Amino acid sequence: MRRMPDRPRTSLLVMLVLMVMLASTTLVRAAVSDASDAGGGPAATASPSTEPSATPGPSSTPPATPTTPDPVASPMPAIDERPDIIVIYVDDVPPLDGRLWTRARTPNIRRSIIDRGLTFRNAVVEAPLCCPARANLLTGRHTHNTRVTANDVAPFDPSVTIATELQAVGYHTLWIGKFLNRFISLRGAARDALRQGWDVFEPWSGGSYGYYYLPPGATRSTRPSMHSMDLLQQLARRELQAAPVDRPLFAVLSTYAGHYPNIALPRYRGSRRCATIKPWRPPTYGHGAATGKPVWLQDWVRRQAWRLPAGGYPLQRLCEDMLGVDELVGKVVREQRHRGRLDRTLLILASDNGYQYGEFGVRDKWLPWSVRVPLSMAWPAGMGTMARTTAYPTSNIDLAPTLCEIAGCEMGPFRDGQPTADGISLLPVMLDQEVPPRTVLLTQMAARNPASRMPPWSAVTTYPGHPLGRWHYIRWQGGTSSLYDLGADPYERRDLGADQRYAGVRQALERERRALMAEGRPVARVEPRPSPSATAVQDPGVRGRITDEATILGPAPDLDGTGPPPS
């Protein structure tokens, strides 16, 4: 990603603002400052229940030194004004024009996040698949640099993540919920390595029921009978109550909610709150909209057309699933209010990736059109409480650099030699400061989808301010390409990939795609740690084989295909 130019660290300004807003801290510091000025040296902190004693002067008698420390007169511990950061992470949820996030359906999400904060209208994930997208979130790196290109945790290097960096600067860190896919198959040192940076690490793998859960300190997973959302709410409340009061908090509460088949909490099934939600029927809905798309996609749509009701895709089950997320947000807000930290909490609603509910005849992800996601954040002490939206383009690789700047750290260097993250900090956008234009984002998928026969692809999308205007350019592995003029064709119905009149546009965008696919490639290589033994051992019942951890630093995936840039 193109980086913002160097500027003074905005996080320092944010912390100063928060210091002023904390009245109690200000009064204590003022008292200490006054006493110090009067005596020309360090001042003793007076008991709030007594009048402060006179400062000893040249002719006064010094007070007797107590034999034991006076707890009232001991210096007050410093208050860390950095915000708590809590990410509510949903699974496979697209924006869907916001119809899930209404006051009537999800009032806690609406009142506590959307109506009190900032919503990004042009938020995407770089890779529309669970495991690669979560690696993007944790590292701020391109998919070709994380090397997590499929739903397999094995290539993931956990040595430098947002958790390790925030923990290093004093944050209490916790992850509860769905983690990178198939982590449960790892054993020994390979599994232990995933705990790096997390003070509390309670991950699971699977769905609403029948999932594998790894409790703290356990060497084997369990399979709880309770709904995973109930467990997540229970654990989140416990850990928020137990979090240390002298350290800021970083928490990722990672739900399975949103993922097909949308098995909601029993108490929300058939809820009236979702009874009136309209089916999803965008202009690109239905198998007929696949006309003109690549042949493999048209063939897939013909085989899968039975899944799409003619009147639009029904969203009741998805909506009911989101009611559990809304309940989680309500409990988090109550706990943070009880802890006296709600105004100093950066609360983020995000999705690991998007989904297609019938667009171009598809009910699935993986594709270049399933990258759009909801992203909203509220932080009263830092951003105020006015609801607003921004069209600033953002990718999920921006979240780690953003949170690190707020906390006072920087992502990187990484073990393979890459010095910093590929994403940029969104803090200037959050604080309504001047930001340089951002006109292009990269998306990519290196894994093949066997169900659809989809080839790997990488793509660039351009935004207002780009010299060429608004385009979506997709390079399919093997050398073919698709091109859409987003200015004239915002729904991407007409593929200009074979139209020779646009050869110059394709060549220019191909150069940008290649440059972004090369971005962040390390120039120096750090020696990998020795591969732990028994990394392929599995839990009973877990199918498939996890490759050895030595693949972490294997060659980066090549999505460039073959042949010269298309003409």
Task: Describe the fold and architecture.
α8 packs parallel to α10 (316-338). This protein is globular. The protein contains 14 helices and 17 strands. It is α/β, with parallel strands linked by helices. Strands 6-5-4-7-1-8-11-2-12 form a nine-stranded mixed beta sheet, sandwiched between helices. Strands 14-15-16-17 form a four-stranded antiparallel beta sheet, covered by helices on one side. It has a two-stranded parallel sheet with strand order 3-13.
What overall form do the CA principal axes indicate? globular
Strand content: 5-15%
What is the number of E strands? 17
Rounded mean pLDDT score: 83
**What is the count of helical runs?**
14
Give the helix/strand class: alpha/beta
Catalogue the unreliable spans. Answer: 1-77, 524-567
Cα distance spanning the termini: 25 Å
Radius of gyration, whole Å: 26 Å
Query: Largest beta sheet: what is the strand line-up?
Result: 6-5-4-7-1-8-11-2-12
Largest beta-sheet details: 9 strands, mixed
Helix content: 25-40%
Summary tags:
567 residues, disordered C terminus, disordered N terminus, 17 strands, alpha/beta, four-stranded antiparallel β-sheet, 14 helices
